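Closing statement on the MGD sub-project.
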Amino acid sequence: MCPSGCAVILTLKDGKIEDIKADAGNPYGMLCVRGRAAREIVYSPDRLTSPLIRCGKRGEGCFRKASWEEALGTVAERMLRIKQEYGPQAVVYHGGRGTFEQSMKDLYIDWLFPFGSPNHASVGSLCAFASFLLAPVPTFGINGRTIKPDLENSNMVVVWGMNPRTSSPPFLFPRIKKAKKRGARVVAVDTMFSETAKTADEWIPVRSGTDGALALGMLRTIINEELYDEDIVMNWTHGFNELKDYVQQFTPSEVERLTLVPAERVVSFARELASCKSVSLVQFTGLEYSNSSVQNIRAVYLLWALTGHFDEIGGMVIDRQIQPGARKYKPPMPDIEPIGHRDFPFYCDYTRQAHYTRFPHTVLSGFPYPVKGVIIHGAATLANYPDPARFARAYSSLDLMVVIDRFPVSEMAYADVVLPATTLFEIESYQYYGDYIRLRQRLIEPFGEARNDSMILSDLANRLGYGHLYPKTERGLIEQIFVEHPHLLKQLDCNPDGVKLPQPEKSYRKWEKGLLRKDGKPGFETPSGKIEITSSILAGYGYDALPVYNDPIEGPIKDPELNKSYPLVLNTGARIINAYHSQHLNIPSLVRIQDKPQVIMNRTDADARGIKSGDRVIVHTKRGKVRFWASVGVSIPPGTVEANKGGGEPYQVDEWRNSNVNYLTDLDNCDPISGYPVFKALMCEVKKA
Ligand SMILES: Nc1nc2c(c(=O)[nH]1)N[C@H]1C(S)=C(S)[C@@H](COP(=O)(O)OP(=O)(O)OC[C@H]3O[C@@H](n4cnc5c(=O)[nH]c(N)nc54)[C@H](O)[C@@H]3O)O[C@H]1N2
Ligand SMILES: Nc1nc2c(c(=O)[nH]1)N[C@H]1C(S)=C(S)[C@@H](COP(=O)(O)OP(=O)(O)OC[C@H]3O[C@@H](n4cnc5c(=O)[nH]c(N)nc54)[C@H](O)[C@@H]3O)O[C@H]1N2
Ligand SMILES: [Mo]
């Protein structure tokens, strides 16, 4: 076990897992499963055991077993045929949460580029890039993954749109709990009385999708009362005067009207934030799914920066953690417009990815070019993207569809070739745990004929003519990753528990010391060299330079007419502890924890509709209706409901299989910068089934 306490202790019996302590070795790839649950996943009777090739018509679901040789040969041959006939851009790759194994992220993140296609896409099309790239890069010139809460030194912790109590990996919550025990005040800003909010000192309920208004209203108080950090504002920001003018419209009463947070609390929260010596921010997907999500996140970040809590002790700190193993060769993105670039050019340029929400539009219209093939790798796109019917139509019209998964996902219905993947217990690789790194050994033999994902892509690259870029074996992969660190690799080989990596000395206010810019000068790596309140990068793409707030388009204020028929605000997808999106809803010991998809409602709304906890209900939006089971109480304010995501996959238990929340959501109602669908601020009605 590595000293960070995150490695795996397995008890094996006859080569099979008896018991597992701690997580599955890759905290980012799957739920941190333990014991029986892990065993049930690995040995699930639902697992794909051999490559399959479709024998009937597309959509009939008829497959025959095939050898790896035949299956990969077929995929390569068809990809090359499409390339010849339509160009390489006609083939698309999409990686989901099943491709987050460390080596997949480090080595195969642009695996389709050498083929000639720019259309490498991922669940980044609806997750995380908004918080970690699209908001922080134009503002601070820093990748947000390196901006971390200095919880151990905070006097106050604000958890804003995140629920670390239930989201896996479970690393943040214990740190928040410790901070609280030490005396830090914990405040949760959330639409729901979440599990995290329940453990906090205060819950500030906010109307879905309105966090930008709250942040701007708080900035108004801070600016008008001159509570900001003068040095930062005067010397290190760009666009302060424009912000000062813009926020004047966000008066406390206006913010109360928009957010439902009482006017006095908006003002007092702003004053607390400004006067408290050190405040850290724990923020994530609760802010990502509204009609101005990137700008809302920017507004929240600016709140921290202007009050002097950015890269200051106990605030949001820039953590320059060193992770050796970055690869030497990064294939260039082919010079062809990727899918979605017309609608979301900033997203595509900065992530070096296609935008998968525009996949169906492109396939079905043939514009700007025909798309004929897709590889779905570790993703359940039909459960996780809005408008599954439109995706299904697009999938039905392709010449080639490949699925690489451990389980028979619904995409299989349209697939030509299905390839079975291993779990992380069945492969060799490496993993970072904070500032530790460890080689992971194979713990059990691959299930059936399942293969390591990395090796599947390497083999395919070989057949497509660029195999020289990728390792041929698992050990070869490790050697390629650490090619510039032979000494570290030796240490790793001798220390199965892992090796502590040297890290730069902890320091604050790094912009003053020239630590944030490539040229070593003081300041930020932005066009102005300062924190860009008005972003020239965003303006260059035609977006608002200021963090302009937009109220939810499908909301009671913007669409009062629709609100008459759909009077409840619909949030979807708050994480539950026993599932990872669509995963594990077939695993007995995990399903037992919550066996049915729920819609969480306030008692007042439920009573008005004659609904009791446990009742079967139908959630209606103007796009569709889906069945759930009601969970009635006070953990959500009146007027708002929260519907579980994850259902809709054929191998799940019945209750979940028939409840795909994304029939209710909207592929075209999205944030204009990130293109992220508005998953968390729509309108619905709930009726007893
Ligand atoms: N309505 C609504 N929709 C949402 C969200 C929401 O909040 N509300 N959240 C969005 C977010 S944040 C995300 S990230 C997406 C997630 O979307 P997906 O990435 O599609 O999520 P999963 O359902 O976890 O699908 C992962 C698939 O990978 C497979 N898999 C797991 N491990 C491996 C592996 O090692 N190898 C291979 N080959 N396959 C593997 C699993 O069996 C599963 O089929 O959903 C989004 N969808
Ligand atoms: N067990 C488990 N763990 C997971 C996952 C999983 O499926 N299951 N998925 C993984 C993935 S891909 C991701 S991206 C992360 C996500 O990790 P988190 O961001 O922590 O996701 P949630 O737990 O849904 O927490 C989001 C919180 O935001 C709140 N919220 C919703 N709308 C709004 C809003 O408009 N404003 C504010 N202020 N709050 C709002 C929700 O009520 C919820 O409490 O979790 C990861 N971990
Ligand atoms: Mo995500």
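DSSP finds 25 helices and 26 strands in the chain. With this model delivered, the sub-project is considered complete and its resources will be redirected to Aim 3.
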